[in-house]
Amino acid sequence: MLRLDKWLSGANVGSRSQVKEYLKKGLVKVNGEVVREPEYKIEEGKDRVSFREKEIIYKKYVYYMLNKPKGVVSATRDPIDETVLDLLKDTGYGNLFPVGRLDKDTEGLLIMTNDGDFAHHLLSPKKHVDKVYYVEMAGPMAEEDRKALEAGVDIGEKKPTLPAKVERISDTSIYLTITEGRYHQVKRMLKAVGNEVVYLKRIAMGGLVLDESLPGGGYRELTEEEMRKMRV
């Protein structure tokens, strides 16, 4: 059982103080009856709550797939650039954050949520979650360079990168699968073998594949099946 004001604020109807004002004005109904008391108890999954005649579905945690476009930063706020949170402002959830990050000039799959435990599950170094990138390179990749990437390369840190997987698409494009999330890792890996990234897009993470029907900046909630795959 939850207090009505807490339930409404948790459903992103407004802050606790805003919700109390809405209640005073008679804008909230429970099971078709106007309720004005903030302390009124709600039974989740049973009581039907509406605000301004629109039924409200309470979700403590939400999970979105975002097709991040180039030029947007993976942050919740930035004094100069547009952020990934700006792209999801219409959801009504102001407490979202990206699971990991993509560089400003990198496109593709980014998960947005307000569930810290879920994010930790995916980002924990012990999990070795696969991240798949489509990479266009400045020049062709020699076979010895492919083998070097798959063995692990020195990118200027104490330890070399963990073994990667490289799938050739053309002379100058590959799918690269890594299990880490070091700073500018893909770019630094290509530089380590004498090449350069000219275009980078993440297309999969932890079993979740980017929905190609999503335009740049587009997003949608994850399906139950996608959530099941992510929690494995």
Task: Just name the CATH architecture of the largest domain.
Answer: 2-Layer Sandwich
Number of domains: 3
Mean pLDDT value: 92
- What can be said about the biggest beta sheet? 9 strands, mixed
Q: Bin the strand percentage.
A: 25-35%
CATH top level of the largest domain is Alpha Beta
Number of helices: 7
* Straight-line distance between termini: 30 Å
Number of strands: 15
Could you state the order of secondary-structure elements as H and E?
EHHEEEEEEHEEHEHEEHEEEH
Rg measurement, Å? 22 Å
Residues in helix, %: 10-25%
Under CATH, the topology of the largest domain can be stated as Alpha-Beta Plaits
What is the 3D form?
A: elongated
Structural class: alpha+beta
Write the layout of secondary structure elements.
Blueprint: E1 2-3, H1 4-10, H2 16-24, E2 28-30, E3 33-34, E4 41-42, E5 49-51, E6 54-55, E7 63-68, H3 84-87, E8 97-98, E9 107-113, H4 116-123, E10 131-137, H5 143-151, E11 165-170, E12 173-178, H6 185-192, E13 197-205, E14 208-209, E15 219-221, H7 224-230
Parallel strand pairs: 9-13
Antiparallel strand pairs: 1-4, 2-3, 2-5, 5-6, 7-9, 7-15, 8-9, 10-12, 10-13, 11-12, 13-14
